[in-house]
Fold this sequence. Notes:
The chain is an alpha/beta fold. The chain has helices at 20-35, 67-72, 109-126, 190-194, 200-215, 225-233, and strands at 9-17, 42-47, 51-54, 76-79, 86-89, 93-99, 140-142, 145-155, 158-166, 186-187, 219-221. The termini are far apart.
Amino acid sequence: MAKQSIFRNIEYIDLGEISYKQAWDLQKEVFDLRVKKEIGDTFFMLEHPNTYTLGKTASKSNLVGDAEFLEKNKISVFEIDRGGDITYHGPGQIVGYPILDLNDWQKDTHKYLRAIEQLIIDTCSDFGIEAGRNEKYTGVWIENRKIAAIGIKVSRWITMHGFAFNVNTDLGLFNGIIPCGINDKKVTSLQKELGRRIEISEVKAKLLKNFKTVFGYNEATNRHEKRILELIEN
């Protein structure tokens, strides 16, 4: 799938738990650095506090939780610049933000979306779960249950935003929204499918391994980690 003739590295940084606003601001700054070719392709994995995000095509009617529900569960709400409708982020869910120059891979947003789906499908397979695609909806599914949502932005062929993969997620907090505007499907998580909690670090390791394979990276490095983390502090 990728251009295998070129030796390619991915800068990988685990941000732990970070607020949505901090991560969004960081993405914008790293995007600008990538445009200027001051850094290479970068992949963040992290968790957010309870957050609902509405993409550019989202209907506000899909936010069904009232002010009391939002306050009780300490849920922040953001209208953002990715594609897609409304989704939930929170502890126990791994969020991945790849900032990649598709000029060095394939200049095709549909293939990029399918590759992100494949990343999650392969990771589910590592845990003995058969996941797949839905012909109508973007994301990753186990039968009619959605385990990962995907929403991206591509500008100058450089990507932002990414995926939200339910691992030990509190699925009850999806009750405050109509996830991705789809009201006839359920959401699920690795924990629910396997009947046990999963170590987040274990899932991240498998995601990184599969990410390198799907996108054709040779190594994961962190040589710009200090510079990038300083952007958060500033």
